[in-house]
Amino acid sequence: MTTGLMAGVFGLYQHTVMVGLGRTDDRTFIGAFQSMDRAIINPWFMLSFGGALIFTAVAAFLSPGRRILPWVLAALVLYIIVFAITVAVNVPMNDALKAAGDPATMTDPAAVRAAFDEARWSAFNLIRTIATTLAFGCLCWALVARGELG
């Protein structure tokens, strides 16, 4: 379930949040993105983000058989990629934008927005979206295979 939730979060950012923010002026983009990034660090998000990794690893460890294990391991590898991209790329980009300060007092918000590089952030988010969705699909298929073992 947590993997499915994360696929939804990344997907929503990909096809709605970043598209909507992309249509705003520089100060609005920076302020809104900073505000959302501060808000997303909460127990519900952290449970889903970290839980997807932990619960999938536990499922791999507890998988009862050859029909299920490959699917769970595939999901785990895909989500490890997502986790690594998040920690190595998206979070540092988010942090740099937050460190730029209050958009209301910026002398050149266009330069701050350009330095953030929305296209790069979105490209890596697209990878996260696809990989998490595939991981969720693998886990769903593992459930189907588990039902067939019955």
Report what the structure shows:
The chain has six helices and no strands. It has 150 residues and is mainly α. It is elongated, with a radius of gyration of 18 Å. The mean pLDDT is 96. The chain has helices at residues 2-22, 26-40, 43-62, 69-99, 109-116, 118-149. Helix 1 packs across helix 3 (43-62) and helix 1 runs antiparallel to helix 6 (118-149). The chain has one domain (2-149).
Keywords:
mainly alpha, 150 residues
Strand fraction: under 5%
What fraction, in percent, of the residue positions are helical?
A: over 70%
* Biggest sheet layout: none
Poorly predicted ranges? none
What characteristic shape results from the CA principal axes? Answer: elongated
What is the terminal separation in angstroms?
22 Å
Mean pLDDT: 96
Total strands: the figure is 0
Name the structural class.
Answer: mainly alpha
Number of helices: 6
Rg, alpha carbons: 18 Å
- Give the SSE order as H and E letters: HHHHHH
| Structural domain count | 1
InterPro entries: Anthrone_oxy
Pfam families: Anthrone_oxy
Keywords: Membrane, Transmembrane, Transmembrane helix
Transmembrane segments: 44-62, 68-89, 123-144
Question: What's a concise summary of this model?
Answer:
With 150 residues, the chain is mostly helical. It is built from six helices and no strands.
SSE layout and pairing:
Blueprint: H1 2-22, H2 26-40, H3 43-62, H4 69-99, H5 109-116, H6 118-149
